[in-house]
Amino acid sequence: MPASSLRPWVECYWWTRGRPVAGTTHRVLPDGCMDVIFDLSGGSAPSVVGTMTRPLEVRHDGAVDTLGIRFRPGGLPRFMPLLARELLDDALPLDAILGPGHGLRGLDDPLAATSPSRRTALLDSTLVDCLDHGLAGDGLAARAALLLESAPDVAHVIRSLGVSRRTLERRFDQAVGVPPAVLRRIVRFRAAADLTLTRPDLPLAAVAARTGFADQPHMTREVVAWAGRPPGSLRLERHP
What we know:
40% of the residues lie in helices and 16% in strands. By secondary structure, the protein is of the alpha+beta class. The chain has two domains: 4-130, no CATH class; 181-238, Homeodomain-like (Arc Repressor Mutant, subunit A, Orthogonal Bundle), CATH 1.10.10. A five-stranded antiparallel β-sheet has the order 1-6-3-4-7, with no helix packed on it. α3 (140-148) crosses α5 (165-175). The longest helix has 19 residues, at 180-198. The mean pLDDT is 91.
């Protein structure tokens, strides 16, 4: 977890380390988030991954030592001058977005030289210094995205925030990359996918009921739309 002052914008830090069998792949599912990714093995330059609307197959052919910053929906543009719609289903080198002097630029070398136990502190201090260096203004989109996790619909969020639908859609275009209604679908899909994968003992009909779908066929259609395969197949990938 990041420092408490960063949690409205940063969901978590994550690491992937190891030496998988050559040709191993894993499926990265849409989650509404954007990530900054550092390859600490030196195999590639740091990159920014935009909001995803389709799954991504990542192939590993050697040792992996990857560190990521996962930003909550609407959070990343608080830290850098980025229009989220321009990165939808895409990735760019970090240095192509950041100007000289930005704290995240060149951070891969200090991270690689820092012990794993101290990397969280380095990330925290860097991101605190970079907060409000972006274009997201007052953070309306991030607040709306958080409300969407539990709101019955987008109209409820609009009423709660006292803004027009057009204003909210414009802010989402800038800070999230997809409209509010699309993010709500992704958030619900993410909840269903997480429960499907972490609770292999739970019947899929119960997963659908717990995550707000009308029924299991409704959930299956949404999982196929976002993951490219039905929930049973996702479960078999993780729990063969």
